[in-house]
Amino acid sequence: MPHATGPSGLTPVREHQAWVATLLPPAPVESRPLTDCLGLALAEDLVAAIPLPPFDNSAMDGYAVRSVDVTEASPQHPVQLPVSEDLPAGRLDSPPLLPGTAHRIMTGAQVPSGADAVVPVERTDGGTAEVQVQASAQPGAHVRRAGEDVQVGTAVLAAGASLGPTQLGIAAAVGAARLPVRRPIRVLVLSTGSELVEPGSPLRTGQIYESNGLMLAAAVRDAGGKPELLRFVPDDVDSFHAALAPHLETTDLIITSGGVSAGAYEVVKDALSGNGVEFTKVAMQPGMPQGAGHYRGGPAVVTLPGNPVSAMVSFEIFVRPALRRAAGHRDAERPSRQATLTRPLEIPAGKRQYRRALFDAADGTVTPHGGPGSHLLSAMATANCLLEIPEEITELPAGSTVDVLLMD
Ligand SMILES: Nc1nc2c(c(=O)[nH]1)N[C@H]1C(S)=C(S)[C@@H](COP(=O)(O)OP(=O)(O)OC[C@H]3O[C@@H](n4cnc5c(N)ncnc54)[C@H](O)[C@@H]3O)O[C@H]1N2
Ligand code: MOO
C-alpha cells in the first residue's frame, strides 16, 4: 500500500495504523475446550440452553418449610416440626414436603415441592429427627429461583467478548464444554543487534541486555496472541532470511525491533526491502521509523524501531489494535479517557506525541511521567497510560484537557 504523507512529508499515524490493520485478516474460527480459551475472543453469541439456577434451590443450610407452618415461630415460642428428609446438594430425587413437616436442606439443594421457604440452621435448634424453628420465614425466603440469573435463550456472552475468568465461568455454568473462538494470531518476535546479550550473562562495555524481544513477546501474549520469540538473530541478511524460513508456514505476523533507521548496519531494513515490506517515517514521537508489509507474499510484517520505548509505544499504537481486531476481540482498542493535565508541557511541532504518564482516576488528572526520550524505559514501566498529543499542538498549559490511553 502506498504511503500517504502529511504536510511534513511524514506518514500520519492514522494512515500507518490503517495500513497495518489491513495486513491481518480475521483469524479462522475453531472450537476449543474451555480450558484452552483464556484470553481468546468468542466468535459467536453463547446462548444459554438451560436456566441459571437450573432449579429452585436453597441459599442457606437449614430447613425447607411451608412459611404458613412457621408464622408464629419465635425464640420464645419455637414451632416444632418433624424432619422427614435430608437434602444434601446433589441429591437427585426431590421428595415433596408434606404440610406440618420440614426437610433438612443444604445450600444448593433443590427446594422440594410443597416448601416455599428455608429457615437457616442458626434460627433453629439444628435437630435431625425433629426441629425447633425459632423464626418465621416469608414466602420465598432463602430460595434461589430457577432462571433468576439466566433464562433459557439468553445470550450470556456476545460474539467478540474477550474470554477472561468470569466469562469462562459463565460459559461453564450454562454447560458449554467447548467454545467457538478465533484462533490466536501467531506472532514471531525477532530481535537483532550485535550489542545485545542475554540477561543473566555478564555485560561488556558497549553491550546492553536484550529487552525488546521479551517485552514484545509478552505484549503479544497480553493482547491475546501466541508469541514465539527468536532473539539474537544474527546481523547479516542471509542469516536473517535463514532464521525466518522454518517459521513461515506457522506464522501470521512477524514483529521485528531495531535495524530500521538510517545507520550503516540496518539488517531488518536491508533484508526486508524488496521482499514485500515498505519503510516509512511516521509523524509520531516516539516511533518514527516504521515498516510494514507481507514477507515474500507470506506472513504480515511490522518492523518496530529499536529504542525500547519506541518499540513498545508503536506496538501499542499499530500492532495491538490490529492483532486484537483480527483475533475477533470487540475491545480491540485500549480504553481512552479525557483528563486534566497537572503541569504545563512544551511539545515539538509536527509529530503526534505519546508521552508516558500517570492517570489518576479519582480526580481525573494526568501527570507526565519521565522525559520524552525513547530510551527511558523505566518511566514507561511505572506509568499507567500514554498521553496522546495531536501533531498541531506545541504547548499545553496546566489545566488543559488531554486524551489518555489507559495501559492497565
Ligand atoms: N540518522 C538518523 N538516526 C536515527 C534516526 C533517523 O531518522 N536518522 N531515527 C532515530 C530514531 S527516532 C529511532 S527510534 C532509532 C531507531 O533505530 P533502529 O530501529 O534502527 O534501532 P537500532 O539502531 O537497532 O536500535 C536503537 C536503540 O535501541 C536499542 N535496541 C535495539 N534492539 C534492542 C533490543 N532488542 N533490546 C534492547 N534494546 C535494543 C539499541 O541498542 C539502540 O540503542 O534510530 C534513531 N536514529
Ligand atoms: O522515533 Mo524514535 O522512535 O523517537 O526514538
From TrEMBL:
One of its GO terms (molecular function) is molybdopterin molybdotransferase activity. It catalyses: adenylyl-molybdopterin + molybdate = Mo-molybdopterin + AMP + H(+). Belongs to the MoeA family. It is an enzyme of class 2 (transferase). InterPro entries: MoaB/Mog-like_dom_sf (IPR036425), MoaB/Mog_dom (IPR001453), MoeA-like (IPR038987), MoeA_C_domain_IV (IPR005111), MoeA_C_domain_IV_sf (IPR036688), MoeA_linker/N (IPR005110), MoeA_linker/N_sf (IPR036135). Catalyzes the insertion of molybdate into adenylated molybdopterin with the concomitant release of AMP. Its cofactor is Mg(2+). This is Molybdopterin molybdenumtransferase. Its EC number is 2.10.1.1.
